[in-house]
Amino acid sequence: HQPTAGMAARRGGARGEYRALDHDQAPDGAVDDLHWRDLPDMLQAQVIVQLRADEQLLWAGRPTMRASTLVILFALWTVLLVAPAVALVEAVEDTGGWWAIAWAVVSVFLFVPRVSRGSRVVFALTTKRAFVSTRSMYCSIDTTSLPYTEVAALRVATAPDGTADIRLVRGSDVTGAGPVIMDSVVGYRDACRVLQRVLPREVVKASELEGKLAAWDEDEDDAPHAGGAAPGDAR
User: What is the pLDDT of residues 145-159, one digit of tens each?
Assistant: First the structure.
């Protein structure tokens, strides 16, 4: 069954079926239901198929396209589309228009994957590990996973637009898989609260995460917002 509000997902049973677990079974009630409900069905499915029998989902989210990034991509797309198209039409007789159309199609495949990341990439924190599941434009899925026991450092960088980049660095990168990076995360406060509980104590201390969470909570208490959650929070 697909997990719903107030539930965490776990895969179990001889046939690998999915069953819902009560919210109270998650450590400290860490399941982030608001952000889970906001995920498209396809991203929820990407998370569910990755869950193992011995782990439970604590938080899930996806990247958000920042306004500044969108403006830059649109400007680049416009320049790289219009300038070559005009040059091809003017420089190549007879077939210049067809080449311009071909370049327009190619430019779509260059820029659309970046713009559509929010519908193809999902971040997840379980009781055992963090992972990023990425679905390509051709529907193949690539997953980068990192057990908490192998995390050597945590870095959180907040942005003015209310999002943050979360980087989990491996202690010994034997596989060459590299760090797990969750970029442009809206629900970063909830993700960091989960990481505070599941990461090794020395990693949490070195990252000064507790101080950051305290500062964020203080800012939230001081901010005059009515009836809504603060940026990066699902409360």
Answer: 999 999 999 999 998
